[in-house]
Amino acid sequence: MNNSKQTVDKAAEKKKPMKPFSVHMNKDLQRRYRAEKWFQRSGIAAIVIALSFLLVLFASIIGSGYTAFRQTFVELDVHFNQDLFKNENIAAADYPAMIKDSLRRTFPEVKERRELKSLYMIVSPGAAFSLQDMIKENPRLIGTQQKVWVPANDDVDMLVKGQMKASEAEDNRRIKDDQLAWIEKLEKDGRLETRFNTTFFTSGDSREPELAGIWGAVKGSFYSLLITFLLSFPIGVAAAVYLEEFAPKNFWTDLIEVNINNLAAVPSIIFGLLGLAIFINFWGLPRSTPLVGGLVLTLMTLPVIIIAGRASLKSVPPSIREAALGIGASKMQMVTHHVLPLAMPGMLTGAIIGMARALGDTAPLLMIGMVAFIVDIPGGFTDAATALPVQIYLWADSAERAFTEKTSAAIIILLVFLICMNAAAVILRKKFETKW
Amino acid sequence: MELTSHLASQSFPTLPTYDFAASLDKTETQAARQTVGNPFLENPRMTCRDVAVFYGEKEAIRGINIDVGCNEVLAMIGPSGCGKSTLLRCLNRMNDTVPGCRVEGEICLDGENIYDPSVDVVPLRARVGMVFQKPNPFPKSIFDNVAYGPKIHGFTTDKAELDNIVETSLIKAGLWEEVKDRLQEPGTGLSGGQQQRLCIARAIAVSPEVILMDEPCSALDPIATAKIEELIAELREQFSIVIVTHAMQQASRVSQRTAYFHLGDLIEVGPTERIFTNPRHRLTEDYITGRFG
Ligand SMILES: Nc1ncnc2c1ncn2[C@@H]1O[C@H](COP(=O)(O)OP(=O)(O)O)[C@@H](O)[C@H]1O
Ligand SMILES: [Mg+2]
């Protein structure tokens, strides 16, 4: 019986020879490896595409914005004429007259009224403020003659930076031929140079591009975000802890959860409208202020922080809770001693990402009037202010050519802040990552 | 032909006819089975009388009567899902944290019903400590792990005294020699067996009367398991210990009394030696001879 079976087996083998096992395996394996390779390659391709978009964005913004960090200055021989300081108040002296006087002395050949007017245009209207500051600092300069570097007008700045071409037809450029000659002369005499643009980092908005700065907007954003953080982080953490650790699981908590998720997806302009209706019209808080801006951004950030907070509470392993309860910790102690510290890095990360979003958001601030033209640097929560993204929006809308580079420069500043915040989130997460 | 069928019937006896799945899904309360053996003791530390536990509608254990003696190790064995952990977690009211869990009957610690509404679970859990299946030290230093219990129960505010408590607890848990030079290192950096002994040290640092252990060795290697078993034998001199275990060898090695559970019923209780050498109930016999479980 055994014999016959063997012969049958042999016959079967002859009829249909089995493929060697290894070959069969190889084909299957190769197919799997191919699939994996293909998958990896498409992943890499996706990343490369995304990165190249980002690169193009950064290159174009930095390319058009970096020039704003330098500014053209003109050297004048200013005579702080005693006669012009008749008034008791040295701040009220006729500084523009001193500028005009020094320009006239530099170019004595210019006599005619119209020509003089275009000569004066070479220097920024803000030059008078430079002189004022000098005298305020050192009143003994009155009556002396000083070499002073004052900012050039934005058109001169554009020309020097090459953003306005002297080769264009005269009608097409704002700097006319006579002005061109004067600028050339100044340059030849070494009275014209570009310097680091401190004004951009220290002053508020201005109608004159060469006098406009980002500092007012930065401070406005800072005050708003401070309010946002101080309100949304504690409230968000408390809400997340209550919902995750204490609340009974029933219809109402489900409803709350759904609504929080909905709120996180509501377009921010709606929060702006809500803020306008409640904070300004109903509560009567002052409009255009970081206080109201911060409150509106809080509304927007809160759901993000609650959701991130709940996720990081959920990720704390239940064994830790059992350990704490098993040793006799109360629920409150379990949460504050064990669960919260472990969840905190995740919560902070969520908060920072929420804040980064709030920093970049413009629409709700437009609704509550933080879009006004504000020259003064806000000194507190209730001073009128703008914010960084709003400043970008305002400058992007301005007609002067010089504002184009300011817009890009402001975007660079905003991006730097965003990168710093997101890097902080990553570092926090890495640093406090607990392994159990 | 005859030989084979004979062999088959020898090595594969017909299993008891209980349909596990059907019994588990039963929602209506059914009468508890009579326990074989005497579950009562002269001078008990803890007593359970007619204890039934429900998860929502489902009854997990029913009609449990059992005592835990002083300075004894009581082992609870039985197939998984029979309710050992459920009963164990009733003894320090850890089941309170499970939503929808309801406990009926009476469980007393030193004659006082721990389910009385006037009883506070916080001091109760200091008196009835618990060691879990998976070692779960806090992600804090070894010292803080052990010192946490005494701190929250306000045993001491004195640093030297706290040091002392930590040291004696670690000595009792047989971990002192291994960790005395690195008390400030994280407890999570220890090996699995060391972590479990750290958890035992943490439990005994609050001087409990009873220690509950739910399969404390199931995540450990044989050497670490042997150490824990040795430790349990030593701890018996001071504490009452209730241990749930899957390994019957372990139950026979460490315990004085053994209770066998089956589908929510306490089937048989008795001195460990007798249970393992001469079980009276057929289900107990089937289980310890390895026919199911
Ligand atoms: N949290 C819970 N919710 C619902 N049912 C549970 C829960 N815990 C345990 N059970 C059920 O109670 C029964 C006993 O479980 P358990 O006590 O964990 O068994 P054992 O520890 O003996 O393996 C099982 O049927 C299990 O499904
Ligand atoms: Mg269990």
Percent strand of chain B = 15-25%
Gross morphology of chain A: elongated
Q: How would you sum up the global shape of chain B?
A: globular
Low-pLDDT stretches of chain B? 1-29
Mean pLDDT across all amino acids of chain B: 87
How many strands in all of chain B?
A: 10
CATH topology of the largest domain in chain A: MetI-like fold
Strand ordering within the main sheet of chain A? 2-1-3
Q: Nearest-angstrom radius of gyration of chain A?
A: 34 Å
What kind of sheet is the major sheet of chain B?
6 strands, mixed
Give a list of the ligands: adenosine-5'-diphosphate, magnesium ion
Strand order of the largest sheet of chain B: 6-7-8-3-9-10
User: Helicity level of chain A, as a percent range?
Assistant: 55-70%
End-to-end separation of chain B in angstroms reads 31 Å
β-strand number of chain A: 3
List keywords for this structure.
heterodimer; A: 436 residues; mainly alpha; MetI-like fold; 2 domains; three-stranded antiparallel beta sheet; disordered N terminus; B: 293 residues; alpha/beta; six-stranded mixed beta sheet; four-stranded antiparallel beta sheet; 12 helices; 10 strands; 36% helix; globular; binds adenosine-5'-diphosphate; binds magnesium ion
